[in-house]
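Lecture notes, continued. The same structure-token format from the folding unit now serves as the input rather than the output. Read the line below as a description of shape only.
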């Protein structure tokens, strides 16, 4: 990961601004737990409230990590500074068939957020959620994208930042060629991502400098600028437009880890 990306991701984890919406794509749960724990810990130290909507296993692991840092979760919940919600139960409360309902989302998610913000005026609430990941692994990718949109609409009018996680392999061409780019475009921060210099070096070794230059030019012409890291943009473009090259590049990046 480039130094600029490390700094930008670390800045979000430590001091996110209201309305920012980050996503972590991960394979190793330990990576997610580190990010979520650091994000929540920094917020709690700043006096901010937190909402966690996660699976039981992930709530347990993040809770254990926060306890190791000295936080008493029972006391924080009693004070109303932390609310722990179950991802499956919350999804059941907001879904209308295979789609999230805006009205149900307001009742199940926006109302608790509003209550916490009212109890801690002037603080930027920190939310972590993985309902979208649950939907994704049910095969309801369109519903996950729609739920990301509901979160963004809420964030536009509330004083909170949101981190969400997807358990996916960014070095899998099928993942990159699917709806993943749509998801990433709905976030202000994406991380961590493969190192840009490593991707450039691997691409040059795979197809040569001239073809690499052509690929960069094609990506620049095909993909409008966005907040999605260019490394991620490259992986998605290669997966959709040059699958054999994508497979070779990703295999090399994986073996170099």
């Amino acid at each position: 990961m480039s130094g600029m990306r490390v700094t930008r991701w670390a800045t979000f984890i430590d001091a996110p601004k209201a309305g920012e919406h980050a996503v972590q794509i991960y394979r190793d749960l330990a990576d997610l737990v580190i990010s979520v724990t650091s994000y929540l810990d920094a917020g709690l130290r700043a006096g901010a409230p937190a909402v966690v909507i996660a699976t039981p296993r992930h709530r347990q692991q993040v809770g254990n990590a926060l306890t190791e840092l000295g936080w008493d979760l029972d006391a924080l919940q009693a004070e109303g500074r932390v609310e722990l919600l179950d991802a499956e139960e919350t999804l059941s409360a907001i879904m209308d068939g295979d789609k999230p309902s805006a009205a149900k989302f307001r009742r199940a998610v926006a109302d608790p957020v509003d209550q916490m913000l009212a109890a801690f005026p002037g603080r930027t609430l920190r939310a972590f959620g993985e309902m979208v990941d649950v939907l994704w692994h049910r095969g309801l990718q369109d519903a996950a994208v729609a739920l990301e949109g509901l979160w963004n609409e809420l964030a536009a009018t509330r004083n909170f930042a949101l981190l969400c996680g997807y358990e996916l392999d960014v070095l899998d061409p099928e993942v990159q060629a699917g709806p993943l780019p749509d998801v990433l475009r709905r976030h202000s921060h994406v991380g961590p991502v493969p190192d840009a210099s490593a991707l450039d070096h691997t691409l040059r070794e795979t197809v040569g400098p001239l073809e690499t230059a052509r690929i960069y030019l094609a990506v620049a012409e095909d993909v409008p600028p966005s907040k999605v890291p260019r490394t991620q943009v490259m992986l998605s473009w290669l997966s959709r437009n040059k699958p054999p090259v994508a497979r070779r590049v990703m295999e090399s990046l994986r073996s170099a880890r």
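Point for the exam: The two ends are 12 Å apart (CA to CA).
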